[in-house]
Amino acid sequence: MALDLTRQHATVRGMFPIRDHNPSGRTPYVTYTLMLANIAIFLSYWGLFRDPRAINAFFFDWALIPALISEGQGFAGLGTSMFLHGGWMHLAGNMLFLYIFGDNVEDELGHLTYLGFYLGCGVIAALAQYVTQPFSPVPTVGASGAIAGVMGGYLLMFPRARVDILVILIIFFRILPVPAWVVLAIWFGLQVFGELGAPGDGSGVAYWAHLGGFLAGLVLILPAWLRRGGPAFWHRTRGHPPHPEVRYTDTTRIPKVGRKR
Predict the structure, then answer these.
(1) How far apart are CA 219 and CA 44, in angstroms?
(2) Considering its fold, how many domains does the chain have in total?
(3) InterPro entries attached here (predicted)?
């Protein structure tokens, strides 16, 4: 059984982000390539899910298994695990977050630096999971740790960029624009309380990988933030993107679906 690294990415108690108002100044080639790589790799072993023994053997070879590392094996999983996913929803949730936040961080760092930033956050996230559960035999898979790092970097650079969230309350749907720091602070808080409420492997979510990746993103993007002036950069931009934001015409309501007869 593989830990799901993205359950808290996709939804936050009936709401989840669908886009931001922060356009990038260049084509985010690395973000698109990472998305394609994750999708292609998932499709390459998707058929194994029909055979529990086959998928478990695959994850044993390529996922992060803390107990194996404690035995001096499986070190490759620190890197390969961030390109594996445990199902379609796991993959879709991660790719949504990478699509929303990745392009702007890539725009700020440049293509190659952003690639190193992403991979570094992913490895640090995996190490955080290992250090906190060094004897766990449960395979850990998912890009969530690396993407949490992207979210941490986004928070430092654009804390007040507007992010549209889709709010679902039973049969009512609304899109609300809120500051990025609100969305990311709620997400971070859920990781903390999730780990406190269900420590260890019981929850099926690798909260420490999320938290480790997020904090790694905050630290690794510090040089770029300081080069722009640090607090002076925030003072100039007031936490908003330093360029005009995108304006959408459908920011308040989702069209209603007709009733079936």
Answers:
(1) 34
(2) 1
(3) Peptidase_S54_rhomboid_dom, Rhomboid-like_sf
